[in-house]
Amino acid sequence: MIRVHVFFLFCVFFLFLSTSMVTGAIPLDVVPNDSSESSESSGSGQISIDSVTIVCGEGTATVYVTYSLTDVTHFLFFIFGSSSLEKDIVEMVGFTDAVVVFVGAEEAELTLSDIATVYGDGIYWLPAHTFHTMIPIVEVVTPQETFIYSSITELPGFVYYASTGSL
User: Fold this and answer.
1) Which backbone phi and psi does 2 adopt, to 5 degrees?
2) One-character DSSP codes across 50-66
3) Burial class (CB within 10 angstroms; exposed 0-12, middle 13-18, buried 19+) of 93
C-alpha cells in the first residue's frame, strides 16, 4: 500500500515538474550562451527554432516556423495539446499580433495582417522586425524575390509588389 502511494506521489511530482518546464515556470536555459553552441537551431531549453519562412502576399504575410522540441516537451504536447507551445512559439519569434493558424509538434503557421499598403496599386511594406531569439535561417519570399538570412535577430523591412492573385 505504501509503495502505491509513493509511486503516485512520484508520478504527480514528475508531471508537475514537466509541466513547469514546458510553461517556463522552471527555466531550462542552463547551457551557457557561447560560440561553441550549435548554430543549427536557437531557442529556449525546451524549444529550438530551426527556421522561419515569411511568405508575403496581398496585404498579409504567412509565417512558417519550424522547430524542435525536447522529448519531455514533445510528450507533453501530445498529452495536453498546443496552447502553451503556441504561446511560447509566438513569443520567441516576436509576432505577438499574429493569428495562429496551426501549431504542430515540429512546425507552426502564423498569419500577419499588419502589412501596410504603400501608395496603393499592389505595393506593400513588410515592417522591420526583431525576433526574441536568434533565428538560424530566415527566408523572406516576395512575389519578385527571395531573401535568405543566417543567424539573425533583426529583420529589415521590405517593400514588394503583389498583384491580385500573385501568391
Assistant:
1) -65, -35
2) EEEEEEE-SS-EEEEEE
3) buried
- Which sign, positive or negative, has the C-alpha torsion 16, 22, 23, 28? positive
**First-to-last CA distance in the chain?**
64
Cα separation, 149 vs 14, in Å, equals 40
What is the DSSP secondary-structure string of 120-151? STTEEEE--EEEEEEEEEEEEE-SS-EEEEEE
Q: How many residues appear in the chain?
A: 167
Inter-axis angle of helices 2-23 and 83-93, nearest 10: 30
Instruction: Give the pLDDT confidence of 24-48 residue by residue, as tens digits.
Output: 444 444 333 333 344 444 555 688 9
Rounded mean pLDDT of 74-100? 86
Side-chain-side CA neighbours of 82 within 13 Å: the count stands at 13
- Contact of 124 with 96, CB cutoff 8 Å: no
d(CA 126, CA 157): 5
Domain spans of the chain, in order of start: 41-71+81-161
Distance CA 11, CA 148 (A): 46
